[in-house]
Please model this.
Amino acid sequence: MKKIYIYFILSLITLSLFNSCKQKTIKTIDKTAQLTGFLSNDTTKGSIKIDITVEMPVCLDNERVLDSIRSEIIRNLFGDGYLTISHDSVVNKFAADLVTEYKLSNEQLINELDSTSFYSFNNEHVLEGFSLLNDGSIYSYGINRYVFMGGAHGLSTSNYLNFNVENGKKITESDLFSNNYITKLSELIKVRIVEQSFEDKSNEPILSLNDTDFWVDAIKPNGNFYITDESINYVYNPYEIAPYYMGQTEVVLPFYRLVEILKPNSVISYLIEKDLVK
Model:
């Protein structure tokens, strides 16, 4: 009996060690949901197609930091109402809720249509969540979402989160840039849009933003950026600084172009130092 007890205790210790997380960088696993929900028993009247693939953070040696980062990611992927749901089941729960919401939003209209009507209510929701920079100090995460709810076209958006892995807090512009940075950064973003048009050989280069359909006065820091090992990249979604037909605009700002307005000793200082000595 004593041998069995000792074996049981050793097994528990071994299992605990096996399950413990010693990761210095964030480990993720893919969570997916592919689902088609029909509006009614008559499948020709409409459906919603859902395709979700997200990387879910599951392991880091600091559990408190992991929880903080994961909660912020879940909030941005699915909304505040999903923070209390296990990260193992949140993707499937969100997909099921989308189907329920789709049916509730359209059931009155479908009931009012004549049985001979050929109109259908087709929706689509595609969601991607993915890791970017993940070096043990900074964790950057991207979210791509495409939503179609009828009409002329759907809408694609990209949003980004950056975290300090030491404390789990989101990195904001005020953490990176010195006071009164907005004017200088806005001008640099405009300059880079023009420069990138010359770097992209597939498009006609821009000589002046005033000769384009960009809404020049709207071009300013928007908080939607991700950090790489050599730049800060800003992303503007359709309708943000230009008409829909111009799509998304991404602006790459190399560290060496930002030196004058970056805070000293910030969370990205180590990246800047490495980049400048290349």
Q: What stands out?
A: The chain has two domains: 22-164, 173-276.
